Amino acid sequence: MLANKSIITVSELNAYLKERLEADGHLANLWVAGEISNLKVPSSGHMYFTLKDEYSSVRCVMFRFYNRSLSFTLNQGMQVICRGYVSVYERDGQYQLYVQEMVTRGMGNLHLAFEQLKTKLQNEGLFDPAAKKPIPVLPRKIGIVTSPTGAAIRDIITVICRRFPNVHLLLAPTSVQGEAAPGEIAGALELLNRHGQADVIIVGRGGGSLEELWAFNTETVARAIFASRIPVVSAVGHETDFTIADFTADRRAPTPSAAAEMVVPSKKELERYVLTLQTRLTKSMSNLLASYRERVSRLARRRVLTGPFSSLADQQQYVDGLQRRLVKSINSYVQAKRSLLAALAARLHTLSPLNILSRGYAICRAESGREITDSSEVILEQPVEIILRRGALLCQVKGKKEELEWQKTLDDQIQKMN
Amino acid sequence: MAEDPGRSDPKDELNFEKTLETLETVVETLESGKLGLSEALAYFQEGIRLVKDCNRYLEEAELRITELLEDAAGNITEKHFGLEEDGG
Fold first, then answer.
1. For a disulfide at A245, which of A206, A216, B28, B83, Cβ 3.0-4.6 Å?
2. Which pTM value belongs to this model?
3. CA-based nearest residue in chain B for residue A149
4. What would the pLDDT profile of B32-49 be if each residue is shown by its tens digit?
5. What is the ipTM, given to two decimal places?
């Protein structure tokens, strides 16, 4: 832009400078350390100040949008570290550091140390989700690593009392801030592991500043947590921020109270659950019994079982029927036989000599007993016996006749039929 | 699988978790409808016994708090712990 023109305007100059500065990657995101001076905070809420060191200074602005989230109050003379970009305020031709984030010097060191440790331990695998142990659903003994006089232990006891009092708390007391704290916390964790009876451990403290919580960001505590064979729940009172202990622990709770809730079940819920199981138990048993009863009553309703007498009567009736049929057939048999007998008797009767004899016929017999049927069979004077229907006559032949007329006719007829 | 459905060992000072799990198993088995009548009755009785055990455990309300102490020799003991009513 400037190349072609020999005379430029001030605006053009400032605009050019702005563009050049913003194009420089080095100036896009810097951390600058210095001391605050000339701090001005007008009603707009934007912060204007100068950051200086021994030899020089730079003008800074931190807009309200960014300075809103400052965790401390900015004061004259404070040693700070600012993160931001460099650009030009065109109107004044003033280059500035546009600050987006700020920490106090001591803070800055802590933050740096935190980030470095976090990276280091992460690379070593201390935060690995696969390494995390599950916490028991129903612990009988709960280890607690915290101050014996702080708010944390009180809160934990309160919550557990309310929620599920039937547990045993094992307190391994320790300080939770100060120089000795990391060592003591690690020692307490190790003591609980050696004692070996806790099913789960809560380690933590109530809320505080980053410096007060600092023990829970140390390598000592992190390694002690990781080394614990007993599952560890970290409970460093801070809703949003995570400490190194939080990353290393098997579970993280935002506060000691929350940790206590996590670690014990609700007695009421368990009672309700057991009641549910009991109901299911009795219900399925009574259903089973009902279905068996139904089967039994269905079988009982069958004729075989409801009237043993009626069945017997049926049988008797059947037998009676058979008997009747038998009698009937015997009777008809006898009847038939009787008829036959009568017929035969009748025939016999007609054929019977007595019948013949009673019709006036007689049997003529010779002395030898031989029946005489032809007159040629006797001679005159021969004694013959004449058997009548009743009695007999002793006769002598006085005369004979040859075949009579009607006898001859009968013989002829018979011969013709044969 | 018609044996006695798991009695918990009295030595275990009533392992509630195991008792509860056993109860769940008993209930599920009974609900499956695969048991004959006398078997079902046995399971039912065992289930009721387990329910009683669970309820008895839940009724206990004793919260015990002890402090772990270690002496120079490395012996670990427990001492009763009472909350101090200070402002700290």
1. A216
2. 0.56
3. B88
4. 888 888 888 999 999 999
5. 0.75
